[in-house]
């Protein structure tokens, strides 16, 4: 058997999977596989969402009428046997096998040789891939090896298609109740009507995509062209006689282009050939613009720009971005879309936004940071969710569990309403704690500081009783700029933050870009960004940026006197040595320039295991330590928490992380270095108990969580936690640690946010 090209197959499949509807993609897969492998039958069986049955999802060779209908129980027939045993089956005469079950609608009797392999993705059975032929001998070993490889390559794509639904006859998911998992964006619960936020898309950004419904696409194009024409008509009419003559002429040119039969004919022809409307539009406009550019006549040449302009207008109409109606200004909305930007949020009054659901992005995306700052529940990276299919549906954004619930049934809706009410009352009740210390019943005091990065969240931090800022993520203002901010721009910004918190301390961390924190105006493309040009490494290699930042911070501190500097992603002693030298030099230079600056305390983030192991050697160059438990967990466990394939392995209660944290605490005590912890761990009640037991006296967390964590600390005695800590030292998994801590939390009356489990839930997504 000739060796087919696997990479060609997978790249085609991935390309189709991004755009086509599940049925088309699946039938393309079996068709290509049958051709590549030179067999008579290739079929794909997929598990139903309840994992009770396998359904023929696509076939090339069996009766097409059986697709979506032929159904087997798990362990029923040869296909069921493969699913139940998770092993390959290669037979010379399938109908003669005891396990064979004949499904009349498939018409498969003439086929004897049978090879089936299970499809597994992330330990989960997706379905079974089968090839069949008329000969009466098993398939050769190479065919078996190839099919196993193909199955492993395709499982991820097929798993996505499987969860999209629409590939077999079942009750419509429209209007149906479903839950989707994503990644944590911002805590809280929100309930409202799904409001689709479409991305701003320029014609340049349109990518190749197939149409699933050509007639619908053609109508959409016709309507978009008509709408642009009307827009131009009313624009020119509205401006009337005020328009200069040459602009009148331009409007006429635009109208002529819009009305030209070539434009609509060419777009329609491309849609008929399989392209979707935006892609057909882009290709047509590009080709027409190119024709104009080729012209010798300078007047015609200049029309290239006009046709591009027209194309962009048609595209805007095609993906028209809706706004909430003025008649429903108080309606609660959950904004849903790929990624929702600051500009998108600005289209809505804040009180109307009850939640944010993004199908892309991660915990540290812009949107998540912004949602945290504004106190809006957010769930990120809900890959399986297709908001455009459910416009106007009722949606719950559950930021605590990182999930969204579509069309919740009445009982669940009532329960969520109760929880939202309870949460509001709970938070209001906590206001009385604002000026109280976070002290255990036996007198152990913990400072609670806040994490911030936007000016917008300075107020919530203060309102919720933050005793200062434990982590100011300076990259956030860099991320929402469109070029590196100047020293003066930075000075203005830092000054406002320091002033808002003075005299409380503010630890300003220098730029921490790289990994998943990218600047829109400075592309860093790396094979392994988490092990690359991140944090202090980037800053030291771009000393001009670092010096400007240090200078801006030092100047902002002049009349506030509350600045502390914090260095991210330290992994080597010489990094802290160099950083300290830059600060000393900046203090000297600014003093000479007449600024009354002072040498601030310098802190180091422990995020990389080497910084933890070298702590005694780093101590001479630092005044305090701040543990970034997010990155420390990531690097200790070698788990990228934004990677859905492994994010279930990311847990800061992993025993190795706890060992590291105890070691850091003890070393800092021995070295007389103040230590705080500023990752998400500081908001996890189970972790807080263990951290207090270890002796941590300072935590930095989002403003939203400060009152809860304060309440928890005030309701426990540290003494009573020492047994818990001792027992946790014996645990060998994070699950054991959580099971150990849960009863203690219950004992102090800590509310676990319980959600009722209703029958027939369909749960999808990462995790
Ligand atoms: C951390 O790594 O825990 C941390 C606080 O830094 P960031 O989340 O900004 O990477
Ligand atoms: Mg970090």
From TrEMBL:
Domain GAF, residue spans: 21-172
Cross-referenced SMART domains: GAF (SM00065)
Compartments it resides in: Cytoplasm
Reaction(s) catalysed (UniProt annotation): L-histidyl-[protein] + phosphoenolpyruvate = N(pros)-phospho-L-histidyl-[protein] + pyruvate
Record key words, sorted: Cytoplasm, Kinase, Magnesium, Metal-binding, Phosphotransferase system, Sugar transport, Transferase, Transport
UniProt cofactor(s): Mg(2+)
InterPro entries: GAF, GAF-like_dom_sf, PEP-util_enz_mobile_dom, PEP-utilizing_PTS_enzyme, PEP_util_C, PEP_util_CS, Phosphohistidine_dom_sf, PTS_EI-like
Cited SUPFAM superfamilies: Enzyme I of the PEP:sugar phosphotransferase system HPr-binding (sub)domain, GAF domain-like, Phosphoenolpyruvate/pyruvate domain, Phosphohistidine domain
EC number: 2.7.3.9
Lineage top rank: taxon: Bacteria
Predominant subcellular localization, coarse grouping: cytoplasm
UniProt record similarity statement: Belongs to the PEP-utilizing enzyme family.
PANTHER family reported in the protein's UniProt record: PHOSPHOENOLPYRUVATE-DEPENDENT PHOSPHOTRANSFERASE SYSTEM, PHOSPHOENOLPYRUVATE-PROTEIN PHOSPHOTRANSFERASE
Protein name: phosphoenolpyruvate--protein phosphotransferase
Organism: Marinobacterium sediminicola
